[in-house]
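Q: Hi! Curious about what Transglutaminase-like domain-containing protein looks like structurally. Here's the sequence.
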Amino acid sequence: MSVLYRKHHVLIIKNANGLDHAAYSFHQNSRNKLLAFDATVTDLITGKVVKKFKLKDLGERSLISDISLYQDDREKFFDARNFPIPCKIEIIAEHSSLDNFFINSWDPQEYWNQKVVKAEVVASYPPSVGLRFREMNFEKGPAKEVSEGSIQLKWVFEQMEPKAPNPGEDYPWVQFAPARFSLDGISSDMRTWEGFGKFYAQLIAGKDELPKQFKAEVHKMVEGATDDYEKVSRLYSYLQKNFRYLVIFLGIDGWEPRKAEDVLETKYGECKGLSTLMKGMLREVGINAQYALVFADDKKKRPLAPDFPVHSFNHAFLRVPIGDDVIWLECTNDFLPAGFSGNFTSDRDVFVITEDGGFLDRTPKYAEAKFHQVRNNYSLELQPNGDANFSGSNTYGGFPAIPFWALERYADENTKKSYLNSQAAGSGAIIANFTLQNIASREVPSTTIDYSGIVQRFAQQTAKRVILPTHWKKMDADFLGEGNLNWEESLEITLLPNLSLESGIGEFKHQDNLFDYNLSSQLVENKLIVKSSLFVHSPEPLGKEDKAILVNKINDQFKKTIILKKSEMP
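A: Let's find out. The predicted structure is below.
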C-alpha cells in the first residue's frame, strides 16, 4: 500500500526572511524516496530566470544522530539562500513511500508572516484501502468525487492573511491516516485503537523471551523481595547498571524492537529493545508489564483522539500494574528510581499494547507535593568582617532532586563540590566538606545534602549597622518545574556580642495568584531565627517567560533584610 506525493509550490519572496519559506528537505531511506525535483528562481525586477535546480543539484547529508550507532536515513535539501530579492521560487517535487503507515498532514499556511493566495490539497485513494482524515478549524469539509476504483477529496483555501507568531491561536490543518495499512508484510486496521494495537502486538510478539540461563539469574535478583514493587525496583536497577542506551535505525527497526536475547548479548538497546528486555524480566517473576507508546518530550505534548487512531509516537516504555496501582518504567533512564520518569513522559496520552489489541491511558501528572519539595536548613556563625561559618542540610524531593541524582551518577568529587557551591548553597559559599545521599522512597527520588564551610560577605556592613538577608539563596527557575513547589527554609544566625536589633523582626505574609509566601523572624538571646515557606501552585504548566516573571516576583519577596546596630566591643 504505497503512497505517492506530488508538490507544486510557488512563492513570491519580498524580503530575505522569506527565503526560509522556500527551504525544502526530504528524509530518504529504504522506505521513502525522492523521485523528482525541479526548482526555478526568477528575479522579479528583471523578470529573468536566475537559476534552475534538478534532483542532482540538491545537497545531501547523513542523519545519524548522537545516540545512533547506525541509521540508513539521509537528507536531501534545497538551499534557498543568496537569491535576489524580490524573487519568485517555483518548486515541483515528487516522492514516494513504500507503505501508508504514515501519511503527511497538510497545513495550508506553513509559516508565520506568510500570505496565502491559494492553497489546495487533493487526496486520491482506492475504496478498498480507505483514508481517514481529521479537520482542525475548518468551516466546511472537502469536495468529494467518486469514480470507478477511486475516491478523491479536495480542500481549497484562498486569500489567507499573514499570521503573527502566536502558538496559542488555532489555525486550519488536516491530519490524514489510513483505514487499512501494511508494513513489511504485516497488515492491520487503523480505524480503531484496538485494531492498531493488533499490529504492534504482532511486532512485539515473542520478543521478550529470555534465555534459559538468564531466567535463573532473574529469579536470584528478586530473592527475598517483600513485594512486587521491590522486585520491579531490583530488576530496573539491574537494567540501569548493565545496559547502555544506543540506537540503530534500519528499515522497520524504527518501530520493531530487537529481541531481548539480542539486547542481553550486546549490552545496549534503544527504548524499544530495553523495554522489551525489562518486560521479559518482569514476566519471568510473575509481573505483567505492558508495552506502551508515547510522544516523549520535555516541553511538547501530543494529545491522542479516542476516535482518530494515528501513529503519533517517538518513544516506547512500560506500563506496570501492581495491585490497584500503576507505575511507568522509563527504561532508557540510568539513574532515577523505578516508577519516576520526570517530565519526559509525564501527564500525557499513551497507547498501551495488549496481546489482542490496545487502549489509551494517561501517565501521572506528578502534581502531588511529594514530587516538588525543597527543605533548606542553615546554621551560620557571623564573623566580624561580615563572613560567616556555616553548616547546612538540604533535602529535595521529586523534580528538585533530579539534578543531584544525575550528579551522583555522573560527576566526580570536584564537579560535585563546584555544583553544590553554585546550586545548593547560597551566594558566597565555599564548601569545605559535604555528604550527598540519594534515597528512593517508592517512586519518589529524594536527596539529602549535609555540608559545611564559609560564606564570604554574608552580611553587609556600614560604620554603624549590619544588614542581614532573610534568605541566603535566591529562587532558581529549575526548582519550579512546570509551576509547582513546596519550599521551606530556616536560618539560625549566631550574632556577635556587639550587635543589637534595629528593625526587620516579625511576621510577614504575601499572596499572589500563583504563590503564597510566609516569613517569620525572631531574636532569641544572641541567635536570630528566620523561617520562611513558599507554596507555588500554577494550575497549568508555565512557559519559559512566565516562569521567569514568577521567579522575579518570588525573589523580590526574598530581598527583605534585618538591620542590626553596632555597639563598641567591650
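A: A fun detail: The chain is about 15% helix and 45% strand.
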